[in-house]
Amino acid sequence: MNRVCIVGAGAIGGLIGARLGLDAAPGTIEFSALARGATLQALQRDGLRLIDAAHPDGQCVALRAADRGDELGEQDLVVVAVKAPALPAVASQVAAMLHDRTAVLVAMNGVPWWFFDHASGPCAGLHLASVDAGDVVRSGIPTRHVIGCVVHASAVGVAPAVVRHVRGDGLIIGEPAGASTPRTRSVAERLERAGFAVTVSPHIQRDIWFKLWGNMTMNPLSALTLATCDRLLDDPLVRAFASAVMAEAQAIGAHFGCDIDQTPDDRHALTRKLGAFKTSMLQDLEAGRALELDALAGAVREIGAHLGLATPNIDALFGLTRVLGQSKGLYPGAGEPGAPVVPSG
Questions:
Q1: Disulfide check for 145: which of 94, 104, 123, 264 has CB 3.0–4.6 Å away?
Q2: Same domain, 114 and 213
Q3: CA angle 285, 289, 290 (to 5 degrees)
Q4: Strand partners of residue 252
């Protein structure tokens, strides 16, 4: 894989991209990024900079940056790390960078468009309108190109094209069909050389669902309350509501092979150990960026409805956060539930 493109050079995309670029021997990778606005200008002017504990002044990666996929040309590896609301607009640009063997590493939160493409049982082949209305994304990024990715690392964007690594190096990757393939092993080896602790999963959907199980409560609740996660979990009423939401999601997952053997309190205890931190949705709210609500909660509601399962607590959380987003202009308004929202910046 000699041509690598980062789509979404924000916190996580910037972390993955910078590490891949810093690991590569000179002349071995044609490195590029698809971006826009201030991030595009900064990438073109200064490159991509990564700050970490070992390099407090940062290390810079030179790359080619453009706002159109056809300008960057065909790629061997594309890392997609945008927020879900931006994905419909991005998909056609990614399509212009694909050849027959391009691998697309999808490092995003929430339920992805391809989640049930290789499933059996009651959700086999289910297309989720909440995350891909009209199949726009799957038309641009067919599942055969996808490698799923669950990120267990934290980073923040401190300025356009400048990322600071906070904690964690874990990445779980896997084929949607489950098998270990040469391309997945190749991507895993490249990421390991770049400093990540990589696990190749035989059931990446299960890993996605497990991470979602915590994200789908803490993210919206933090946006609704403007509170860090420690405060949410230290309030017994909020904690109980989060547990009720998680119990509904746990029951949904059990119907399509993504059983979770923890209790909500088990997960709360792990989250509480992280201390006072702002979720990505709270950061998006404060920055005036579109809320990533559909992939985190809307999709779970849709799956529940498909299975005929009631989700009153998920519904309440989704509805309250939706109204918040609409009042701030950060989520589609009433009457346009499937309209894509592209964040600013």
A1: 104
A2: no
A3: 95
A4: none
If asked whether residues 155 and 230 sit together in one domain, one would say no
273 among known catalytic residues: no
CA distance 68 to 52: 30
Q: Which has the closest alpha carbon to 293: 220, 202, 238, 239? A: 220
**Residue 33 bridge partners (DSSP):** 6, 65
Express each pLDDT in 206-225 by its tens digit. 999 999 999 999 999 999 99
343 has a pLDDT exceeding 90: no
What secondary structure does DSSP assign to 278-333, as a single string? --HHHHHHHHTPPP-HIIIIIHHHHHHHHHT---HHHHHHHHHHHHHHHHTT-S--
- Whether residue 131 is found in the same domain as residue 7: yes
The answer to whether residue 44 is domain-embedded is yes
Catalytic residue, candidates 211, 273, 278, 328: 211
pLDDT in tens, 162-210: 999 999 999 999 999 998 999 999 999 999 999 999 999 999 999 999 9
